[in-house]
Amino acid sequence: MVIENTYSDVENCYNSLRPQFINIGLKMGYCMEELHDIINQFFLDILEKNIDFQTVNNPQAYLSTAFRRKLIDHHRSAAKNSFVDSERYAEEHAEPTVQEILEQLHSNTELINRIRSAYKKLPHRCRKVIYLKFYEGLTTEQIAEKTGLSKRTVYNNLFEGIKILRFELSQKETGVQFAALISLVPLVISVINIAK
User: What is the dihedral of CA 60, 65, 69, 71, to 10 degrees?
Assistant: First the structure.
């Protein structure tokens, strides 16, 4: 098929190749509205370039290849010129602060009740050591002095109590990290003490 570069010939190519170009564009992920604009611009560019189709062996293949390149260039240009609104991105992808997580957890009474239940399941010696560690804020040495236990026993009771808490809470709370849960233990202990 020999195409002369006149307006009517380009219009004929437009009419005959447009459905094929739409299929190419849809397969490459473009939407219909965007494709109409790109196809129209492509054929306007063909008219402006005043290409002599007499020298082209297969005009249909030539135009199809040129159109694919136009789509690729359009995609690269759009990607290059797109910018990220840093304020909007920061709002959408902001990680909550530790304080926000703790405030959210404090307001969750069901979660507090789960921690309370797990805490009450601890053996008395573990509860006592965890109380002194997390509620009163004592060090291992201070707990040993106050209770008369050895440092090793205090450490073992802390380890065992935390292990039990971790097991109990991981069974019920999968979406919250254990560190955030253990930070609520002082709150739970204070609630238990007030209730007594």
Answer: 60
